[in-house]
Amino acid sequence: MRNRLASSAAAAAALAFLMLIVSLPAQAEVRIQQVRSPGGITAWLVEDYTVPIVALRFAFAGGVSQDPPGKEGIVNLMTGLFDEGAGDLDSDAFQTRLDDAGAEMSFRASRDNVYGSMRMLADQRNEALELMRLAVTAPRFDQAPIDRIRSQIAAGIRAQERDPEVEAGRRWLAALYGDHPYARPDEGTAQSLAAITADDLRVLHKALFAREQLEVAVVGAIDAKSLGAELDRLFGALPEKPALRPVPDIAPKLAQRIDYEYALPQTRLRLAYPGVARNDPEFFPAVLMNHILGDGTFTSRLFREVREKRGLTYGISSSLVNYEHANALVIGTSTRAGKGGETLGIIQDVVKGMAEDGPTEAELADAKKYLIGAYAINNLNSSGSIASTLVELQLDELGADYIDRRADYINAVTLDQARAAARRLLGAEPAIMRFGPAEAEEKEGN
Amino acid sequence: MSLAAQPVRHLATALLLLLLSLAPAFAEAPRPQERVENFLLGNGMEVVVIPDHRAPIVTHMVWYKVGSADEPPGKSGIAHFFEHLMFKGTTNHKPGEFDAAVAEIGGDQNAFTSYDYTAYFQTVAPDALGGMMGLEADRMRNLTLTDDVIATERDVVLEERRSRIEGDPQSLLSEEVQATLFQNHPYRVPVIGWMHEMEQLNREDAVAFYDRYYTPNNAVLVVAGDVDAATVKRLAEETYGKVARGPDLPPRLRPIEPEQNTSRTVTMADPRVTIPGFAKYWLAPSYRTAEPGEAEAMDLLSEILGGGTRSRLYQQLIVKSDLAAGTGAFYDGTALDETSFVVHGSPRGPDGLAKLEAAVDAEIVRIQRDGVSADELDRAKNRLVRSMIFARDNPAGMANMYGAALTTGNTVEDVQQWPARIEAVTAEQVKAAALKYLKPDQSVTAYLLPAAGTSN
Fold this sequence. Notes:
- The structure holds two protein chains of two kinds.
- Chain A is α+β, with helices and mostly antiparallel strands.
- Chain A has 17 helices and 13 strands.
- Mean pLDDT of chain A is 91; it is low at 1-28 and 441-446.
- In chain B, 42% of the residues lie in helices and 16% in strands.
- Chain A: GO terms for molecular function: metal ion binding.
């Protein structure tokens, strides 16, 4: 290899060329139109005809945390039933027409929202959206599909009964959130699923699917006027206001230790620290600090110390978790048996260093450049991802000009603010979960 | 860096199903996308440019025509391990400099290894493309590898194996199935490597692998996004074009499978399992090895038999009976050599596995005996063909599609003509493919079962 290097003119050429790198941040050229339908339903639209498709995304307030006690899993079950019959069409007829229309429809629930999406060919938009209208406004909830989807979900629950990873996740959520809805499994339990009736689903649908807390985004081959009419068609028949169950805010319980022994080849570690709300003035200082700590894929402090220098793990990261009613900063990794204690010690040293001294000026400057440039790459890389991003911006009440303002928010963060965020989040005693082989069984790794 | 040791082959197939079409039938958009351009540099490096100007983003990928199936015997995992080492710095750039250069502009970079290829990519703003090409061209030949770096990174890939495989019964079983289905071909060896061989990989192995395979004439550059072919050509000539052509590599001829005349079973029981499952595998031709139209027929067979909620398996075993909680079929045609066709299922409770397997077998026999209807064939074709229109929405996905095709013995034209070839498949061809390849006495069946004594 050395010989090749010595004679390589390419090396010099490549080096010279590098000097020409211009580090202009990608400027998102996404032009957002705010559309208001004749019936008063609003949506954000990005009109684009490059590819003859239309991507529709929307969200209703109220996710799986809306499950009534004793009926856990009902919101998740409901999201499996929208393509199982609507209006006059039974499950088979509905799915046949959807297939004929060349459209893909999906629904899912997060903790705080129910999301719907459709990807359709522009020339079959009329039929595709007609089916979406039926699904959204007139789902049938026929008994046969309910029983079928329910039994598939129940089989999934049963299949995971002895899966230690699932059990670890359950224990982690229970420790952090206690009896708050956020601790419950999204899919419910065999018992709670069995208790759900078609009428329960109809009541739930009526309570959640309403116009007032609905956010819509559309990207692709459709103009604002046409979209206005489509919005009324899709959502106009829904009730105005949802009937949401109140969900309390909760601070995850920190300063605790959870140990779950299971004979596995690796020890998994999770740490939870306080988080910061999306509308907190310290949100961006925290985002930048977290990026430096453990969110920069190959450049973060945790990556460098735990993986790059010591080879203790394949993956380590920290992330800010933002739910409607809870926030946290969470660190996760896994390492071979026998190295759990050492790895935890290194993580805690890195955290302590960040809490006490904060990031350096250079790290902060680099993190700013990354976060500004990364936005388009991570959020605007396809019609679907643009539409998803626009729905999230609306859910977070950030405004249609947010994409233009975001860089200013990031650039305005001072080193003192980033240090303060580090102290505030990382100065706390974390919740720590250790999951894996017993300490006594640990041997020096092979 | 790395990712996708094992799953990438599956990913690649999903992408092939989403193959892009620029066929005139779909060029009805007001602003049609520019043509895909394809050319060679003077040193033999192939270039594919896929312009898409909707967002100021460009995906830059270099695909090497080498994967785990090209590894020397006893050195399993070297292709993937070496992929990790490509991030360790060069004579011109210290370790971490490349990552920092990407991070500084908010870019994204990573790499993945499969049986037939290894790919490196960055997603960045268009004005950074030249810089990325410079760095990528630099590490094609100028990598520095110290024993220290090797030892630490080997620990990382060993952790990766523990994370991906060792702690997961399903993954362990898949490895064993692959080693049973392929009796002679190196697809029997896992991409990430066998633990005991990975532990022994060293600097000498890495340097030998690098010198043999990392040359411009063994690489394909794929650039997709907000860029035009002329710009890519100029930048590529200024960077990759300066790298000396390497020795010509011999044709990629791996040991091929002997005639197989047995049905085999591989069984794993594990206390973590509560509901059993099975999967049945057959050897099947890939797009490169198949007779004309056969691989296309296999794609349609897979779609009709088990491609989703409208498939026969789903409708018969989940909707019209309650035999299965999950079931489907899968065909992986994006491979240099003979590949596999798979059906799988799991019942809704601890019992019923044998009945479910018999029902899945019966659906296969039904196609072998009665064929498929014109209506279901048309619908399956429509689904495959329209998925390519949707695929055009994601430039990075399209880059993956072309890269995987070109490193497994296919051409840009093959990719572009795929929809027309799918349209041309007859019901008789689908039936013939099922008869020829899904023979019960030449299969491998995998069972994942609850451990004895842990019944419910």
